[in-house]
Amino acid sequence: MTPKTAIRAEADALYAAIAATGAVPVEADLLLPAETLLDLYGEDIRARAYVTHDPVRGEMMLRPDFTVPVVQAHMAHGAEPARYCYMGEVFRQQYHAGPRQSEYVQVGYEVFDGSDPLAADAEVFALFSKILQPLGLRAATGDTGILRAAVMGLGTTERRKAALMRHLWRPRRFRALLDRFGGRTAISEARHSLLQMLDRGQDPWAGVAQTGLRSQQEVRERIAALQEDAATPPISADEVQLVEAVLAVADKCPAALETLAAMAGQMPALLPAVDRLKARLNALEAKGIDVQALDFEVSYGRTTMEYYDGFVFGFYADAAADLPAVASGGRYDALTAVLGQGRSIPAVGGVIRPALVARLKGGL
Does this model's pTM top 0.85? Predict the structure, then answer.
């Protein structure tokens, strides 16, 4: 049996297991419009997408995943609630030799159901856990909603909170912004010089020809934002330390919940997210998941799961540490609002990599 034949056989078996739940089979085009979809992906996928130009359709890309096109199709034509399953190739450039392939098969499951989002989270995770149970994988979970709640609970301007929210998925940039907004690091010399000119009433654009893509109006709006930020008091040291403590939470689920509940006493904005975590753990237990042994990390998935905005999860083979996640997924409510042009529905899903399953079974 050739490797591709073995992978396809594994994909067929995984797909059948998901379809047996009653999920509706769905297809997605291999070539997708890059202009409308590429911005919806995180930096990791955008940087690795295969983009080409079609003389009639314009910029196109080879399908980098299924979630975005499935969401787009559902928001345009689907009834609710809905459950979909799919199988097929995705394409992502790889810049280093290793176990990650530039073309590989995904099998996935997506749930659009607003009746009980936490139960839907548990449904998807439990299904994947059951399917993958023979492999003895380690499950990891997180919840980006907790970090989002911590940022929105900061006692600072909406502009600063929006900047931090934009960079949740870029840990270094997020840290740099948090340090600057908290007064831990000084502003750059160039920014300091610009602000001094403005304080003296000087126009930094006087006599300067316009270059680049931004108009002078856009630049002036940016300068006004810098002036506003310079006049804003630093975020308190206690709040900065609390956000750092939230980011550092990594434990078994019950212990992590207890730690976060204590933090919510200091930052009440965390309480709704902590309550959702508690209810989700109850929903997972109701599905037969041993949450006492389940790992939870607030920062989990921050660099690779950019369009998720709530529960996130992955399954890993600790005996093969070089392998990426065998399966991963999470909640992406905000994505449905973007593709639904204002109409949204709670949605959660995930994918399994049949090639990795076959390899762990010894089939490759």
Answer: yes
Spatial separation of the C-alpha atoms in residues 298 and 256, rounded to whole Å: 9
Angle, CA of 123, 27 and 72, to the nearest 5°: 75
Q: Is 1:39 a contact under the CB 8 Å cutoff?
A: no
Neighbour tally for 235: CB within 10 Å:
23
Q: Contacts for 159-163 with beta carbons within 8 Å, 24 or more apart? A: 159/225, 159/228, 159/229, 160/229, 160/232, 160/235
The span from the CA of 139 to the CA of 125, in Å, is 9
Report the C-alpha gap between 43 and 171 in whole angstroms: 13
Give SS3 for 158.
Answer: helix
Region at 185 (left for phi over 0; alpha for psi -120 to 50; beta for the rest): beta
Q: How many domains does the chain divide into?
A: 2
Distance between CA atoms of 248 and 149, rounded to whole angstroms?
15
Using one digit for the tens of pLDDT, what is the confidence trace for 41-73? 766 677 778 888 889 888 888 898 898 899 989
Q: Is the dihedral of CA 264, 334, 167, 296 positive or negative?
A: positive
Domain that holds residue 70: 1-134+346-364
Which among 216, 235, 254 is the end of a domain? 235
**Same structural domain for residues 85 and 43?**
yes
The single residue listed with the structure tokens 């310079």 is: 230
Q: Are 314 and 156 spatial neighbours (Cβ–Cβ below 8 Å)?
A: no
Number of H helices and number of E strands within the chain? 15, 12
Output 226 or 8, whichever has higher pLDDT: 8
Helix boundaries (H) for the chain: 3-19, 34-37, 43-48, 67-77, 117-132, 144-152, 158-166, 171-181, 189-199, 216-230, 237-248, 253-264, 271-286, 333-339, 354-360
pLDDT at res. 320: 84
- CB of 137 closer than 8 Å to CB of 332: no
Q: Which of 124, 133, 139 is nearest to 292 (CA)?
A: 139
Q: Say if residue 166 is in the same domain as residue 114.
A: no
Tokens matching residue 38: 């590429």
Amino acid identity, position 227: Q
CA 84 – CA 347 distance, rounded (Å) = 11
